[in-house]
Design goal:
Pfam family, one: PqiA
Largest sheet: 3 strands, mixed
Protein name: Paraquat-inducible protein A
Radius of gyration: 22 Å
Keywords: Membrane, Transmembrane, Transmembrane helix
Shape: elongated
Helix content: 40-55%
Strand order of the largest sheet: 1-4-5
Number of domains: 2
Low-confidence stretches: none
Mean pLDDT: 79
Number of helices: 7
Distance between the termini: 21 Å
Strand content: 5-15%
Number of strands: 8
Amino acid sequence: MLKLVEPPKLTDLPLEQLIACPDCDLLMQKPEIRLNQVILCPCCGCELYVFREKVVSRSLALVITALLLYIPANFLPIMYLNLMGRVTTETVWTGVWSLYHSGMPGLAIIVFLCSMVVPLLKLVCQLTVLLSISSGYFKKIGLYCYRAYHHLKEWGMLEVYLLGVLVSIIKLGDMAELGIGTGLFCFIGLLLVQVWLEVIMSPQQVWQALSEPRDASN
């Protein structure tokens, strides 16, 4: 169900009742929203608010799934390479290690941070936020973690790494015999779960739940 916001007269309205569109900066009165409604900007159509059912419990399930996929995605073989009878296995971790020992420590550190450290930190921040909302305790810590999560979002580049892996598979296919490892399926699963989590975990709903007193609704 979609609901367009009509820009009202803003004279003498308190700041907490105002909202600005993040895309076109249109200032308007904050609308009332009901379950499963999506609020769009009347000027540019940008999504302003969305209120989903059981967002905390559903997001918790996705975060736990992503954490379970994290270790196999990074440490199980992504591919098997058979070149002239010599078989090697490649994982995300061995890729970082190979870059480091190939005289490219700077690139190795960047790949390590963007493909392993930052995605894990994002998941830990999301888990902390959701646990603080569901329990009603330590919401100040949850606020700090959610702010940190938004700063980390731009540095997590699992999709770029996956694209690089797929390009490598295509290019190496004519030079050697390749086999797909379990790690690649776990890596794709991790990426899909994180994308789904981005969709389910409505920012406005999370900010509101973190600012409410204890017994915030799931």
